[in-house]
């Protein structure tokens, strides 16, 4: 059962995590925690011309949370908050309803499909996306997703 969760792809992504640490001068920061497992992330974000231009993360999570954060970090620069909200909604649908994983730029998140049957791990997988949405909302004043649907909570 754990072998289905902690696949070679998941462990490889977790080991390749980038943009670790904190930005010196972020426009906004947000911290989220998974209410079930206690995994936690703080993200720092800058936006230029409507797209994320700088990003850093301080994450304390299992390999699932780390692998999701690794994939987010590798694709986040140049992404708009609206696109992050779309990916987050797709991931929630994948985890909660068994929907297809994200495609295109975010197809790497498909390695986390097996988490859908493990509700206790959903929050860890959503940490980076939901913290990024919270931070970008602080900058723009716009809520890009329904906060009531989030699988994490403020830390």
Q: What is the count of structural domains?
A: 1
By CATH, the topology is Sufe protein. Chain: A
Shape summary:
globular
Question: Unreliable segments (pLDDT under 50, ≥5 consecutive)?
Answer: none
End-to-end CA span:
30 Å
Q: Mean pLDDT across all residues, rounded?
A: 94
CATH class: Alpha Beta
Main β sheet profile = 4 strands, antiparallel
Helix and strand content put the structural class at alpha+beta
Order of helices and strands: HHEEEHHHE
Q: Rg to the nearest angstrom?
A: 14 Å
What is the annotated CATH architecture? Alpha-Beta Complex
Task: Report on this structure.
- The chain is α+β, with helices and mostly antiparallel strands and 155 residues long.
- It has a single domain, classed as Sufe protein. Chain: A.
- Helices cover 39% and strands 17% of the residues.
- It has five helices and four strands, in the order ααβββαααβ.
- The protein has helices at residues 2-5, 8-15, 63-75, 81-97, 122-140; strands at 28-33, 40-48, 51-60, 153-154.
- A four-stranded antiparallel beta sheet has the order 3-2-1-4.
- Strand 1 and strand 2 (40-48) form a beta hairpin.
- The protein is globular, with a radius of gyration of 14 Å.
- The model has no long low-confidence stretch (mean pLDDT 94).
């Amino acid at each position: 059962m754990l072998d289905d969760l902690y696949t070679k792809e998941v462990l490889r992504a977790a080991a390749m995590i980038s943009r670790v640490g904190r930005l010196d001068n972020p426009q906004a920061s947000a911290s989220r925690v998974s209410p079930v497992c206690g995994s936690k992330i703080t993200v720092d974000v800058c936006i230029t011309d409507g797209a994320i231009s700088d990003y850093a993360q301080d994450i304390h999570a299992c390999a699932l949370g780390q692998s999701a954060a690794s994939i987010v970090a590798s694709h986040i620069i140049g992404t708009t908050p609206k696109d992050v909200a779309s990916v987050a909604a797709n991931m929630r649908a994948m985890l909660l309803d068994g929907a297809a994983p994200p495609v295109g730029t975010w197809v790497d998140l498909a390695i986390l499909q097996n988490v859908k049957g493990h509700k206790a791990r959903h929050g860890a997988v959503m940490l980076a996306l939901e913290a990024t949405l919270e931070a970008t909302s602080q900058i723009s004043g716009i809520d890009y997703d329904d906060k009531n649907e989030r699988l994490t909570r403020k830390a």
